[in-house]
Amino acid sequence: MQRTFHRWRLLFAASSAFGAGSVCHAGPDPSGDALSNPPPLAQQVSMDLNRAWAVATPLFGTTLYVQLRFDQRLRAPSEAAAAPNNLAWTARAATGFVEFDLDDNAATGQAARQNAMSPPFTFSPLGIDGWFDLTVESTTPGLGLFVLPNGWPGGAGGPIAVESELRYCYRSIVALVDLSGVPGAMFDLFQPPQFTAIIGNPLNMTDALNTAGFVGYIPSPGGAALFLVAAGAIARRRR
Ligand SMILES: [Ca+2]
Ligand SMILES: [Ca+2]
Ligand SMILES: [Ca+2]
């Protein structure tokens, strides 16, 4: 347990450094703006998103780092699914979607799920070409799914789904998404794609990013080293 704790501290340190740098762009969100849960969770905590990061580095050109940060303790959806009568766990089982406008073109892709909460949150004009689906973690513990819908440029046939890694701790959801099957527009340094997110628990969505974030990049060796720390922490925890 102690070793696991230290790994998360390393991960938080890396994440904080991402946030402090000019190359990493976050989608900030106020604390305290989450919607209430309906019964039977009405008296329980609603998932309240605090900040979202999406970072890529050219040194790992097919890997995207995603972090969603909360002001509260989290449970994995799979934990809640295993204890259906524990309402406190269900209320804190963070789930939802991180949605990417991969080609930075609102005319391609589909409307953001985030718009289901607009108003009261800002309407997102993004054309969503791919999304990271956290909801599947309820049946595949520790794993999310990156999904590309039909019709995205370069995609042929059915949707492309790349299995990715998802881990939970008290305050963050972090994921390393393998985008090896995704065309290269994601990593155009001069046209960083935007993203948004809608988050909740298994009963309903309770919060969304109020403003879109941009996928950041880590071109420097120091930034790449921090990226390695985060990747290593996730990889060790997976074993
Ligand atoms: Ca919030
Ligand atoms: Ca698009
Ligand atoms: Ca919000």
Structure overview:
By secondary structure, this protein is of the alpha+beta class. The protein has one domain (26-219). The protein is 20% helix and 29% strand. It is built from four helices and twelve strands, in the order αβββααβββββββββα. The chain has helices at 2-20, 77-82, 87-91, 221-238; strands at residues 26-28, 49-56, 63-70, 95-101, 130-133, 143-148, 160-168, 172-178, 194-201, 204-208, 213-214, 216-217. Strands 1, 2, 3, 4, 5, 6, 7, 8, 9, 10, 11 and 12 form a twelve-stranded mixed sheet that branches. Helix 1 (2-20) runs antiparallel to helix 4. It is globular, with a radius of gyration of 17 Å. The two termini are 14 Å apart. The structure holds calcium ion (3 copies). One calcium ion is lined by residues 101, 103, 105, 108-109, 127, 129.
